[in-house]
């Protein structure tokens, strides 16, 4: 049975060229980048080149890139590091109700430390209102964290407009760009972004590596203490192989961005056309015309998400819900609850398909027809 992987928003396969680039740094080039001898200098040079590549991809300076263990650490450093370093200016933070848990749970932690957090609601399309943000902004607001594109629905937030709004305000602007980076062009200067989080394993790079862009003017208190790596902002011997793999993944993503975005939009369109043709009831969650190209979140009325996912898996198709599956139960997606309310049937019948490296038109068609068959079977239609 052919297995079709449509869960790239959860993690993506490593690109063969990334693996090839990393191997020498796990075999021959193994020096500690902090050592001044030849072996250390080899590793340091590789990190310097990687930092330049990553910085260039978002229009930043090399010294504004902090390598982390991934998106979660980048989010934690951005929020806790910035909030604690700027507490004398205020203790108010603004975020949205549909953020990734790496942001939401960090905000809950900050609330316990005495910070006040405003969680902006979203409309049925999953977008925040700029008016709500403007009304929530206060003189003592020190940080605004709004994700670039949602990991469950793919919905894009009005990042440029938020950046413009905060230009004259003291609050720093952080965006979790883990899902958007590599598929949407990002220039931190044009968008007035102060902090931005990225993870390599979402762009066909290795797991366990990512970066935080922190503008030169952002004051941060580190979360890790030890050596003076990453300009004293993130202690610990650098993951050289991971950093080199990240840089290669970035290089490939930048070179193929437009082609991939166009292909994934075509996958989305074809999948929905097959659902129409097969006459199964469905709703797209989010704003179809303003979303990440590779994420498609669909509600199938009358189905149960757990049954859907099990049946899809039996048919060889890997998809997901935006929810945490536990034995015999499923936690409702906080994103869909924020969009539609706790009583909506959509929170119990929605499946996320996400496309990426290795997917073909034929796979998408097969997955769509199999999905239609399963929906008919589960709804007895």
Features:
381 residues, alpha/beta, Aspartate Aminotransferase, domain 1, Aspartate Aminotransferase, domain 2, 2 domains, seven-stranded mixed β-sheet, three-stranded antiparallel β-sheet, 12 helices, 14 strands, 40% helix, globular, transferase, 2 iron, 2 sulfur cluster binding, 2Fe-2S, PyrdxlP-dep_Trfase_small
Q: How far do the termini sit from each other? A: 26 Å
Compute the number of helices. Answer: 12
Average per-residue pLDDT, rounded, comes to: 96
| Sheet with the most strands: spatial strand order | 2-8-7-6-5-3-4
Classify the helix fraction into a percent range: 25-40%
The overall strand count is 14
Give the low-pLDDT segments: none
The CATH topology of the largest domain is what? Aspartate Aminotransferase, domain 2
Which architecture of the largest domain per CATH? 3-Layer(aba) Sandwich
Strand content: 5-15%
- Categorize the overall geometry: globular
Rounded radius of gyration (Å): 21 Å
Give the ordered list of helices and strands. EHHHEHEHEHEHEEEHHEEHEEEHEH
Number of structurally distinct domains: 2
CATH hierarchy, class of the largest domain: Alpha Beta
Protein name: cysteine desulfurase
Pfam family, one: Aminotran_5
Organism: Paranoxybacillus vitaminiphilus
Domain Aminotransferase class V: 4-366
């Amino acid at each position: 049975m052919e297995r079709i992987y449509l869960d790239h928003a959860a993690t993506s396969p490593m690109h063969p060229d990334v693996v090839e680039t990393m191997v020498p740094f796990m075999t021959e080039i193994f020096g500690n980048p902090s050592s001044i001898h030849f072996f250390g200098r080899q590793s340091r040079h590789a990190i310097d080149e990687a930092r330049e590549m990553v910085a260039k991809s978002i229009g930043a300076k090399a010294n504004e890139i902090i390598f982390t263990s991934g998106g979660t650490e980048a989010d934690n450093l951005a929020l806790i590091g910035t909030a604690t370093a700027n507490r004398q200016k205020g203790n108010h933070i603004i975020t949205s109700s549909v953020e990734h848990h790496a942001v939401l749970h960090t905000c809950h932690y900050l609330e316990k430390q005495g910070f006040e957090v405003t969680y902006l609601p979203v409309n049925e399309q999953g977008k925040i209102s700029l008016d709500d943000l403007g009304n929530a902004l206060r003189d003592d607001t020190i940080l605004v964290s709004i994700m670039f594109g949602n990991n469950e629905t793919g919905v894009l937030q009005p990042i440029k407009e938020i950046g413009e709004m905060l230009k004259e305000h003291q609050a720093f602007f952080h965006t979790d760009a883990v899902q958007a980076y590599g598929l949407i062009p990002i220039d931190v200067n044009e968008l007035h972004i102060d902090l931005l989080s990225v993870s390599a394993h979402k762009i066909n790079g290795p797991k366990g590596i990512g970066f935080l862009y922190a503008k030169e003017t952002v004051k941060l208190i580190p979360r890790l203490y030890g050596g003076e790596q990453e300009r004293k902002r993130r202690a610990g011997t650098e993951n050289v192989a991971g950093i080199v793999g990240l840089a290669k993944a970035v290089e490939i993503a930048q070179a193929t961005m437009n082609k991939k975005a166009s292909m994934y939009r075509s996958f989305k369109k074809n999948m929905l056309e097959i659902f129409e043709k097969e006459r199964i009831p469905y709703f797209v969650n989010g704003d179809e015309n303003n979303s990440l190209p590779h994420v498609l979140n669909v509600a199938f009325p009358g189905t149960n998400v757990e049954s859907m996912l099990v049946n899809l898996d039996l048919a060889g198709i890997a998809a997901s819900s935006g929810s945490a599956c536990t034995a015999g139960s499923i936690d409702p997606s906080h994103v869909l609850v924020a969009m539609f309310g706790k009583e909506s049937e959509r929170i119990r019948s929605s499946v996320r398909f996400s496309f990426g490296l290795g997917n073909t038109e034929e796979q998408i068609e097969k997955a769509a027809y199999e999905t239609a068959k399963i929906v008919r079977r589960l709804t007895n239609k």
